[in-house]
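Researcher: Next sequence.
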Amino acid sequence: MISPPKRILLLKPSSLGDIVHALPALASLRACYSTAHIAWLIKQEWAELLDGNPDVDEVIPVSFRLRSWPSLIRRVRRGNYDLVIDLQGLFRTGFLAGLSGASERVGFAAGREGSPWFYTQRVVLPIPMDRPWRLLDMHAVDRNLAVVRHLGAEAQIPTFAFPDIEADRVTVRQRLDEAGVKLGDRLIAIAPLSREEIKNWPLDRYVELAIKLSRWPNYKIIVLGSSSQQWIMEKFSQVTKEKCLDMVGKLRLRQLGSLLRQTDLLIANDSAPIHLAAAVGVPVLGLYGPTHAGATGPYGGSQRRSLLTDLPCRPCGQSTCHHTKAKECLTAISVDEVLSAAEILLKASEVNTKNIARKPNE
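Model: Next structure:
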């Protein structure tokens, strides 16, 4: 426990999912230190995630290129922060915390690459010290909250503040109108590729899934991806064109959040769209193979579900599969399993929506 800080610097530069997982910690800090100046140091490509966030006073977009380090260090030191919180837990963020000039520097006791050497306070997570691998059972959101809880900030219900900007809503609505989406249409989003190939459920399965989903009355499928992934739409040409909407590379990051707010369900691998969808309150179905769903899966609630196989090798956390049956942890998940799970989530969502709509009249 420390005396109330006046200026706080939060270090969580990347990646998109990790940043979303840190939003509840930010909200807790703001609730605890309502008058403090809170700055967030974040990589340039993710900075727009914090646009319009009421809990942050200053966003510091950075590049970690070697030649930018002198100016980065000077900028951090000019901030005169009395508390630095490192939620990344890597050498570069620990090193930056150490050079910040802050009297208090807080981070994970189990931080990697020697980062704990730079902290004045090291937060030990509530796991058995003789079985450190049990850390994987603790979700990233809860790990971040444990750090701010150490500082006296309590969060009863984790809050994800994500920008919902009018200009983005207008752009998304225009895109949907151009794609032929009409009043009464229901939307299922599919994000079939993650940045790491080992995390990808087979693309042909996604295509088969989209074909079957497109046969459901009143449903249309939206395919999501980055601009470098536009080639995947050739694969989805088998789906009836008016039922399969191409949004690959057509939206900015913030606009993707606005689009997801318009959907009834997102189906994806362990990737950024899952965390965005969960943050904006959309039902999510995640397909998990080598990564640990308990640590990085869609967070909280009955409308978040992860599909995974009960194989002894998973979760391995590796970037390459060394088994004879490559990626069996993912290929063992069938299209029908995903279809069934999607139907369950959509029905549950309908019930929740009807209950919420009835409450004012009760």
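Model: The radius of gyration is 21 Å. The chain has eleven helices and twelve strands.
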